[in-house]
Amino acid sequence: MLARMFADTMWPSAIDSDGAYLIDRCPSYFEPILNYLRHGQLILDKNIAPQGVLEEAKFFGIESLVPMLEQMVMSDAGPGDHTPLTRRDVVQILTSTSHLSELRFQSVNLSGADLSRLDLRHINFKYSNLQK
């Protein structure tokens, strides 16, 4: 797509009086792609979402960038895992923690876990999902 913008008359691009092309896309997401094409390395600033750059790479058909960006998106998604903990997970945590310690299960997804007959005193379940 990007090469076609400059080679084809089928994709008319706006050109200013100096001969510069107008690329009507988000400059924040296009800049890493342009730099990648210049020197072959993908460098993202901290404030740039890899998902946005991925969508631009797909739009412009930069296939060599897609796997790298998909890997970045997947690694960024890791901490957001909301897979429910099982009874086995909870028992393992309880048995490996001193009875004098206070556990924090804040924002933990425990949906569907049968926690009956477990000693759950001194555990902070604030914002946790405890539905069956």
From TrEMBL:
<protein>
    <submittedName>
        <fullName>BTB-POZ domain-containing protein KCTD9</fullName>
    </submittedName>
</protein>
<dbReference type="GO" id="GO:0051260">
    <property type="term" value="P:protein homooligomerization"/>
</dbReference>
<dbReference type="Pfam" id="PF00805">
    <property type="entry name" value="Pentapeptide"/>
</dbReference>
<dbReference type="InterPro" id="IPR001646">
    <property type="entry name" value="5peptide_repeat"/>
</dbReference>
<dbReference type="Pfam" id="PF02214">
    <property type="entry name" value="BTB_2"/>
</dbReference>
<dbReference type="InterPro" id="IPR011333">
    <property type="entry name" value="SKP1/BTB/POZ_sf"/>
</dbReference>
<dbReference type="InterPro" id="IPR003131">
    <property type="entry name" value="T1-type_BTB"/>
</dbReference>
<feature type="domain" description="Potassium channel tetramerisation-type BTB">
    <location>
        <begin position="2"/>
        <end position="65"/>
    </location>
</feature>
<dbReference type="InterPro" id="IPR051082">
    <property type="entry name" value="Pentapeptide-BTB/POZ_domain"/>
</dbReference>
